[in-house]
């Protein structure tokens, strides 16, 4: 497709994202076993590359960067500070690294760029007169703090025996299945809380802060009102209900905290120094939500709740027209 909706990408020298965007072949009927296997084990797919990286980081974090359970059985500021420091460090490395590569070093210029322009600077409606500085403030000051609060409370609950802890030796199959299912659980939770945040009173009071960032960049991903951070990270509470292990909780909340950087990077492909091009997931799917607000509330289709509830936008003019008519009907136009 040479042009994209409203000509957003029509001036780009590179091919725009492929459309129509299709949901993953997981919850489909009739089943498509060959496509499902390719999605689960292929590249790019469910595991490779991103989820394997997040899983590996969680395992490394649990074994090397998390205090012992005995130490976490009582609240002490020293171990709480360790958890906060490592979460902040991971955030700065990923968010800051992506911002440096794409927007400071400009390693690939505007090639494969989704944004209309770079994150705004010198705008009076942003704190400190800068979108990036405001984004860093909300991400590091509120986002990482609330992420850490949820994680600390959950680790303490496991360590103190307040909630039962899954034993790897006794239940290895459930341990692995739950670990592998967490990205899908996150996908469904994100749709539900995101749809709730677009309820008019909550949108104006809370979620509008995130949507100020019409020109996205990595730091805009977790630039949210503190109330939204409370909603956003609440998915970890499932591990208070479903028999789990601290490793599951760390993976869950860590991916929740780090994924927005790539979801808002502003580019849909990575161009390497050697000239090779690699897809950065379906960034375009969420970009359409940031552009039009009333579509694509969930993830990129692993659990296609947007498809089921009629808010799916696949990037085509036909899908855009359906969305426009639905929006006009909802607003009585």
Descriptive report:
- The chain is mainly alpha-helical and 333 residues long.
- It contains twelve helices and two strands.
- It has one domain (48-307).
- Helix content is 53%, strand content 2%.
- A two-stranded antiparallel ribbon has the order 1-2.
- α6 packs across α9 (246-263).
Which secondary structure elements does this structure contain, and how are they paired or packed?
Blueprint: H1 33-41, H2 50-64, H3 69-72, H4 77-104, H5 131-160, H6 172-197, H7 200-211, H8 226-232, H9 246-263, E1 269-271, E2 277-279, H10 283-292, H11 305-308, H12 317-330
Helix pairs in contact: 2-9, 4-5, 4-9, 5-9, 6-9
Overall SS class: mainly alpha
Main sheet specs:
2 strands, antiparallel
As a percent range, the share of strand residues is: under 5%
SSE series:
HHHHHHHHHEEHHH
Parts with pLDDT < 50 across at least 5 consecutive residues: 1-12
* Order of the strands making up the biggest sheet: 1-2
How many strands appear in the DSSP assignment? 2
Mean of residue pLDDT?
Answer: 91
**First-last Cα distance:** 30 Å
Note the total helix count.
Answer: 12
- Domains, number: 1
Question: What is the general shape?
Answer: globular
């Amino acid at each position: 497709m040479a042009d994209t909706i409203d000509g957003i990408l029509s001036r780009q020298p590179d091919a725009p994202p492929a459309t129509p965007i299709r949901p993953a072949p997981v919850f489909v009927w009739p089943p498509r076993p060959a496509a499902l296997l390719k999605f689960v084990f292929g590249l790019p797919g469910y595991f490779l590359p991103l989820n394997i990286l997040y899983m590996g980081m969680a395992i490394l974090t649990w074994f090397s960067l998390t205090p012992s359970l005995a130490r976490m059985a009582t609240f002490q500021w020293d171990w709480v500070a360790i958890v906060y420091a490592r979460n902040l460090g991971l955030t700065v490395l990923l968010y800051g690294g992506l911002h440096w590569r794409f927007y400071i070093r400009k390693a690939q210029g505007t090639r494969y760029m989704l944004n209309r322009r770079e994150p705004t600077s010198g705008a009076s409606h942003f704190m400190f007169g800068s979108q990036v500085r405001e984004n860093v403030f909300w991400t590091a000051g509120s986002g990482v703090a609330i992420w850490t609060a949820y994680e600390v409370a959950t680790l303490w609950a496991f360590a103190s025996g307040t909630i039962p802890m899954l034993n790897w030796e006794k239940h290895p199959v459930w341990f692995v299945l739950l670990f592998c299912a967490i990205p899908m659980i996150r996908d469904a939770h994100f749709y539900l809380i995101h749809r709730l945040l677009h309820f008019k009173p909550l949108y104006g009071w809370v979620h509008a802060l995130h949507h100020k960032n019409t020109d996205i960049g990595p730091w805009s991903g977790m630039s949210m009102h503190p109330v939204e951070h409370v909603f956003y990270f609440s998915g970890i509470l499932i591990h208070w209900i479903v028999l789990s292990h601290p490793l599951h909780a760390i993976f869950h909340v860590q991916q929740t905290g780090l994924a927005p950087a790539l979801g808002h990077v502003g580019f849909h492909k990575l161009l390497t120094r050697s000239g090779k091009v690699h897809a950065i997931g379906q960034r375009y799917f969420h970009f359409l939500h940031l552009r039009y607000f009333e579509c694509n509330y969930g993830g990129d289709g692993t659990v296609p709740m947007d498809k089921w509830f009629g808010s799916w936008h696949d990037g085509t003019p036909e899908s855009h027209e359906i969305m426009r008519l639905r929006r006009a009907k909802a607003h009585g136009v």
